[in-house]
Specification:
about 300 residues, alpha+beta, four-stranded mixed sheet, two-stranded antiparallel sheet, 10 helices, globular
Length: about 300
């Protein structure tokens, strides 16, 4: 089970997201008699709010950008070159036949981070990453894909199916110009697609390489024990998924509240952050082992 860093969300926003994850009723939106702007009735579990673009408005694109920016920060933190400017992407990283483009153009150092090119069947260090967030459940509470007669296509795609759609849309057009394509698909409920999961494992391994380089610059021996290397890589993966999970949670809350930007919450009081303050248990421990230090500590506390 993935852990989520929810420090960037207020208590109300965090409770809203947790209620969605657990299938609990959400507070009713501020609409007339529970009717959405599209004319449909709002459900108590918030599934309609997740899927209705008329309800979310600009929050759909803003939530997408939150996840995109979080991935770009992780890549730059590991000294990987990233292009996320839309004008530059349109000019230098779009399809040859159109202006369609992915979200991030990534150029990694050779042999450190590679993505498999399904068209040419080789690994490339230059690739295009495209972010897609799926709801997994449609507005009527159905969790399986279904053919929509009005739209003439299958809707409510799962993670793997959405990856295949993205690969068909971008893969054949980027391979001829020397780029692999990576669909980064995630769901509103915090799960990542198989390709995105493998990519995050690759980032965790790259962070391990950067850690070895840092130890070498400081004159320290690299991690040699396979168990220690595995534990460090697993810790990097857990922290990485927690940070990206926070971005997914924020994007989902923005959809539910139809807010393209969440209001800032008040930070906690600084006194509550002092976790190393001595408490009653510490004074008992010090009195038995360090009587001189214990007396000075008790006098200072008094």
């Amino acid at each position: 089970m993935l852990s989520y860093n929810t420090e960037g969300l207020s208590k109300y926003q965090m409770s809203l997201y947790l209620k969605l994850l657990h299938g609990l009723p959400l507070p009713s939106p501020n609409t007339d008699q529970g009717i959405c702007s599209c004319g449909c009735s709002q459900d108590a579990l918030g599934y309609h709010r997740l899927n209705c673009k008329k309800h979310a408005g600009r929050a759909f694109r803003a939530g997408h950008d939150v996840i995109q920016d979080a991935i770009a920060r992780e890549l730059r933190r590991l000294d990987v070159k990233v292009v996320d400017n839309d004008q530059e992407l349109r000019k230098n990283y779009s399809h040859l036949t159109s202006k369609k483009r992915g979200d991030l153009a990534v150029s990694a150092p050779a042999d450190t981070l590679t993505v498999y090119d399904n068209v040419n069947r080789l690994y490339r260090s230059d690739f295009i990453l495209d972010v897609k967030t799926v709801s997994v459940v449609n507005g009527h509470g159905v969790w399986t894909p279904a053919f929509n007669v009005d739209k003439g296509k299958v809707t409510n795609l799962g993670l793997l199916q959405q990856e295949e759609v993205k690969n068909r849309k971008h893969g054949p057009f980027y391979a001829p110009i020397g780029f692999a394509f990576l669909p980064f698909v995630t769901s509103c409920f915090g799960s990542f697609g198989p390709t995105a999961t493998r990519f995050l494992f690759a980032l965790a391994h790259l962070e391990l390489i950067r850690h070895d380089e840092s130890r070498h610059r400081q004159g320290l021996d690299p991690l040699v024990d396979p168990s220690a290397r595995s534990q460090y890589r697993a810790l990097c993966y857990r922290h990485l998924t927690a940070r990206l999970g926070h971005a997914v949670a924020k994007a989902t809350v923005m959809r539910l509240l139809a807010l393209p930007r969440l209001p800032l919450h008040h930070p906690p009081d600084r006194s509550s952050l002092a976790r190393n303050r001595p408490g009653p248990a510490d004074s008992l421990l010090l009195s038995s082992q360090f009587p001189v230090l214990s007396s000075s500590l008790s006098s200072s506390l008094s």
